[in-house]
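Exam prep: given the inputs below (a chain plus 3-hydroxybutanoyl-coenzyme A), describe the expected output before reading on.
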Amino acid sequence: MRTVAVIGAGQMGSGITQTVAQFGMKVLLSDVDIALAEKAKANIDKAFARLVSREKLTPDEATAALARITPVADYAPMVEADLIIEAATEKEEIKHRIFAAAGKVLREDAIMASNTSSIPITRMAVSSPDPARFIGLHFFNPVPVMGLIEVIPGLATSKDTVARTRAFAEGLGKQVVLAEDEPGFVVNRILLPMINEAVFVLGQGTASIADIDKGCRLGLNHPMGPLELADFVGLDTCLDIVRVLYNTTGDSKYRPAPLLMKYVEAGWLGRKTGRGFYDYTGDAPVPTR
Ligand code: 3HC
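Solution:
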């Protein structure tokens, strides 16, 4: 792959863009407004500066990688892309609209992928021009640091698309897990019930936020406790994934924790809004309960 298009310049889209550019490919980055893609590029510039100061990247490599990123105002330039990666919000109707619109410029030899965290690939593929060239490509946050990418073929995805997508993922220095198109794939199917259960534990008053996280950090050797991880991922994204698990399986074991729904209704979405289970407005995060 020489040119990759990324649709969505949020946390995941920015991380994907940074990584792909670092690995020598050109990236076309879009969002609903080009200003958002430009802002993401400015933040990637800061991330490169940090890597240079830690001597993980030379100044020349950082300059070259940044120059490979082009914010674009619409999908037309994506005709150049060998791979289009959708990393927009986890709302299925929005994704369907993106696949239909970007599909108009998708070349006949190019692949369209979704970074969805849980929406079925087979169902989304029907909005793309060719479901044989549609696939799930699930990155983990922070993308430049995490070593895994899940590759998820839909029912109609061709073997050639799987092989080329896998080669692309491995070319980014990541390990690949191939997952069937089942709700939550592999990692989120396991992670989100844990996060949801942690919120039940909190809601039932079993332990404080700090102790729930401390318990999992020290008792399980996880780098972050489940509630700090939920804040990191975004509580709205966590709830969206739990709802997909619940609605697609109908299994009551996936019912969302009422407290998680309340936090989302309050707009307390985690780090990105300055408050979730922790308050991020001061120098260090402070538990809110
Ligand atoms: N670009 C490049 N490098 C970065 C970076 C970025 N944007 N952000 C962090 N890093 C690097 C730092 O340079 C540092 O490297 P070094 O140790 O070699 O110097 C390293 O990452 C660690 O960073 P920090 O020292 O700043 O912070 P921590 O040691 O506290 O680690 C963390 C931060 C990597 C986020 C760690 O806490 C962690 O692994 N947490 C768990 C993350 C996780 O589980 N992610 C998956 C979430 S689920 C998901 O994404 C799926 C979705 O569908 C929901």
